[in-house]
Structures are given as C-alpha cells and as structure tokens.
Hints:
Elements: H1 6-26, H2 30-53, H3 59-82, H4 88-112, H5 121-142, H6 151-183
Helix pairs in contact: 1-2, 1-3, 2-5, 3-4, 4-6, 5-6
Amino acid sequence: MRVLNIPNIITSVRIIIIPVFVTSMIYRRYDYALFLFAAAAVSDAFDGLLARITRQKTRLGAFLDPLADKSLLVTSFILFSIYDWIPMWLTVTVISRDIIVTLGWLLIYLTHHSTKVEPSLIGKAAIASQLILIAYTLLSINFANIPMPDDRMFWAVAILTIVSGLQYIYRGLKYTNEKHTNER
C-alpha cells in the first residue's frame, strides 16, 4: 500500500494549517482562524472516512492523524489561555491528560513492544468536547451575538478529559497486568 495517498496528504495539510492558524491568531485575524479551524475539523472527519472507504489505511496515517488533532488542540488551548478566553487550569488539564496517556503508551511500547491503542468512546467524547469548545470560542469571538463560553462548558470539557484519562490509565494498567500474567 502506498504511504503517499490522498488521506495522508489531507492529514499532512492539516498539520501544515497549524502554523497558519497560529499566525492568524497572533495577527488577530480571528475570521481566518475560524475558517482554518473549521477546515481542519472537516478534513479530520474526511481523511479518516476516505481512508476507510478506499481501504487506504496506513501506519503513517494512523500516526499522523492523532498527531494533527492533538497538535491543533494543544496549540489552540495554549493560545486561548494566553488570550484569557479559556482558563489556564483547563489548558493544564487537557495537556496533562495527553502527556500522561502518551507516556503510558510509550511505557507499554518499551516494556511489551505493543503499539496498539484503541480509542475509547469517552476518549472520543473528550476530544469532541475540546474541539467544540475551541470552535465555539472562535465563533463567539467572530460573532458578537454569541456569548463567550462559561464555566459550565469548561467543567464539562474538564470532566470528560479527566474521566477519559483515567480510563486510559486503567486500560493501560489492565493490559500490562494481563501481559505480565501471560508471560509467567
């Protein structure tokens, strides 16, 4: 299977969008930022669907897709905290969860040589809530009649993020324990 296929190109373009998104935020072109974020979100749904339909799933795509998602989300959360649109504690929560999950995956890989991580429903819900918060914030900045997000939205995102992180930790510990038991 070819590594350079249309789904992987779309994912790569999504990664390239990130510095353009940051630049638009720095220069206060929030309308561009909204457009770029929306384009990235649509392409995220489209590249995965296209890869499944055309049977062009690749290891590279499986690596790049979550990398693109996480890079855009982490960048957005950091910028939005700097601009004081999202509380710093929520940004720390989101980034901490990602670091913990990534370190857990790395430890499992180093100890058991396994790279398979199945996304959970609650994990997908957490990512979706983060994307919705960023999109909603961008909409509220661009359209005066849409209020800025409030504490309820922040806490909903935080709770989903924390619960999904705890679930991944549990699943990682369970997997490690099963591997350890089977190796005896």
